[in-house]
Automatic annotation (TrEMBL):
Full protein name: Protein GrpE
InterPro entries documented for this protein: GrpE (IPR000740), GrpE_CC (IPR013805), GrpE_head (IPR009012)
Gene Ontology CC annotations of this record: cytoplasm
Comp. bias intervals (Acidic residues): 46-65
Residue stretches of biased makeup (Basic and acidic residues): 159-174
Compartments where found: Cytoplasm
One record GO biological process: protein folding
PROSITE patterns xrefs: GRPE (PS01071)
Species for this entry: Corynebacterium kalidii
Keyword Chaperone tagged: yes
Swiss-Prot/TrEMBL keywords: Chaperone, Coiled coil, Cytoplasm, Stress response
Region (Disordered): 1-29, 43-65, 154-174
Length: 202
């Protein structure tokens, strides 16, 4: 055994782990190139996989987009149909509302006609004066506001749809209104009450 075992001159070379061993620049270059090649290969593989996945995604997306377009067309058609139905419903509702309003006015006006008949009789007997005359004027104002008009004057052409004949005193085919026994009333194109007349020749 040496006198001084710790003397560097007599000690064995220090053991160096292969992982920690120093390499030359040439060896480093070779290792780097190998590593770069492995990385490049791995990246190339990932890139190819990524391109394939992207292509598949595009195909899938393309198929889904086609389905979406079909669904959009169907929804658009449904919306257009619903919109048309709603527009028709609104027009029908408005027409019905106007018709109901006109029918209500006609009913009110028709219920006032007997009162107007009594006032006409009072006027024929000379009793339409004072407060009764004021009532007649107000009633006429209400009927005018409802656009109620009278028809059935003597000499008018006889029309079975507007005139109710109680006697036919005519001798020819050209018939006209003779004596008016009761006035007829209409509101616009609606006949509230036919005129009661005697038919005569024109």
């Amino acid at each position: 055994m040496p006198d001084n075992p710790g003397d560097p001159a007599v000690t064995d070379e220090e053991y160096t782990s292969p992982d920690l061993a120093e390499t030359t620049p040439e060896e480093d270059a070779v290792v780097a190139e190998g590593a770069d090649a492995q990385v490049a290969e791995a990246l190339a593989g990932d890139s190819e996989d990524g391109v394939a996945e992207t292509a598949e995604a595009d195909i899938d997306d393309s198929g889904e987009l086609s389905d979406a377009e079909i669904q959009l067309a169907e929804r658009t058609a449904d919306l257009q149909r619903v919109t048309a139905e709603y527009a028709n419903y609104r027009r029908r509702t408005e027409r019905d509302r106007v018709g109901i309003g006109e029918a209500a006015k006609a009913d009110v006006a028709a219920s006032l006609l007997p009162i107007r008949d009594d006032l006409d009789l009072a006027e024929q007997h000379g009793d339409l004066n004072g407060p009764l005359k004021a009532v007649a004027d107000k009633l006429d104002s209400v009927l005018a506001g409802l656009k109620v008009e009278t028809f059935g004057a003597e000499g008018d052409e006889f029309d079975p749809s507007k005139h109710e004949a109680v006697q036919d005193a005519s001798s020819g085919d050209d018939k006209a209104v003779g004596t008016v026994l009761r006035k007829g009333y209409r509101m616009g194109d609606r006949v509230l009450r036919t005129a009661m007349v005697v038919i005569a020749d024109r």
